[in-house]
Amino acid sequence: MQLIEKYIEIRKRTEHLCKPLQVEDYIPQPVPFASPPKWHLAHSTWFFEEMILKKNLQSYQEFHADFGFLFNSYYNTIGERTFRADRGNITRPGVSEVYAYRAHVDEKMRELLEQNLSSELRELIELGLNHEQQHQELLMTDLKYMLGHNPIFPVYDSSQNLLADVNLESGWASFDEGVYEVGHDGGAFCFDNELNKHKVYLQNFEISKSLVTNGEYLKFIEAGGYQHFDYWLDEGWSWLNENKIQSPLYWHKINGKWYYFTLSGLKEVDPNAILGHISYYEAQAYATWKGLRLPTEFEWEIASDSFSWGKRWEWTNSAYLPYPGFKTAEGAVGEYNGKFMINQMVLRGASVVTAPNHSRKTYRNFFHPHYQWQYSGIRLAK
């Protein structure tokens, strides 16, 4: 696929995800970590304007003088920005103006993409497209958080119960101790946190071919898993009690039955479906209760060809740290990953809302251990 075709396809998909929304859905921000759909639409556009068009298209005129301040996310190199928790307060510009902004940038990007581009510029555009795909997933998880905290549990799309999938495999895959290679070789696109390919030593281990299901996790709940401190890390136990956590996110016990919110509305929990919306703390506590553990990210990568993955982001027992030889790039692009390598845990795989063609076994996702709002699940190891 030509780069210009890829650009058009990815940009259109973001807007397609917003088609079921009403205009009121574009604006609310119920918590600081979940951004409004309107902000995602504008920020992913800002990336192309700020990082690419302003520097590489001589005739380019920025769409609006305030948009750099409003829609910068965390790039200190570029300048001042609005506070993250205030994104929901940006009622102006309106939704229609944000779509006009996207159309303006898309027109100029198509003009740029018709030129003879350097390899460096093509790589930067590729980064921008992968950045937009990341925001497509965040848009869906943030939107679900907003709708899932609406007291009437509104339907986004009646055909989208993205929690209905089940395991197709069972049993365990075994691996001998030894020295293995992990990481991306850089031959195709990857983020800088996947580089460099290097060797790791692993003890022999086994890893489950299936993810933990709702029914399996229900047994943990019914056995008092959320009431026994000895299953939990100390920070996890504090988080659980401070926030009165008693179940995975979006689960509700109504008249003695468990229900969960899906993008197609409130549904009765399917015991055979794969568990989702679990924090690292919950994943670790469940593994401890089972007398097992979570795999490290290196075990997961080495074993990933032995099972199917991609339905849930899978918590690993690895802190998010740089690989050997990691070097932060100069300028704003260098702020993309490196500065977040502290107090976060690695997730591997992908989820049912990950953008098409945006997953690979070396991909390193990362979040703080208390977050539940991603489509995250549990694969056990021993």
UniProtKB/TrEMBL annotation:
<dbReference type="InterPro" id="IPR042095">
    <property type="entry name" value="SUMF_sf"/>
</dbReference>
<keyword id="KW-0560">Oxidoreductase</keyword>
<comment type="pathway">
    <text>Amino-acid biosynthesis; ergothioneine biosynthesis.</text>
</comment>
<feature type="domain" description="DinB-like">
    <location>
        <begin position="9"/>
        <end position="137"/>
    </location>
</feature>
<feature type="domain" description="Sulfatase-modifying factor enzyme-like">
    <location>
        <begin position="177"/>
        <end position="304"/>
    </location>
</feature>
<dbReference type="InterPro" id="IPR005532">
    <property type="entry name" value="SUMF_dom"/>
</dbReference>
<dbReference type="Pfam" id="PF12867">
    <property type="entry name" value="DinB_2"/>
</dbReference>
<keyword id="KW-0408">Iron</keyword>
<dbReference type="InterPro" id="IPR051043">
    <property type="entry name" value="Sulfatase_Mod_Factor_Kinase"/>
</dbReference>
<protein>
    <recommendedName>
        <fullName>Ergothioneine biosynthesis protein EgtB</fullName>
    </recommendedName>
</protein>
<dbReference type="InterPro" id="IPR024775">
    <property type="entry name" value="DinB-like"/>
</dbReference>
<dbReference type="Pfam" id="PF03781">
    <property type="entry name" value="FGE-sulfatase"/>
</dbReference>
<dbReference type="GO" id="GO:0052699">
    <property type="term" value="P:ergothioneine biosynthetic process"/>
</dbReference>
<dbReference type="InterPro" id="IPR016187">
    <property type="entry name" value="CTDL_fold"/>
</dbReference>
<dbReference type="InterPro" id="IPR017806">
    <property type="entry name" value="EgtB"/>
</dbReference>
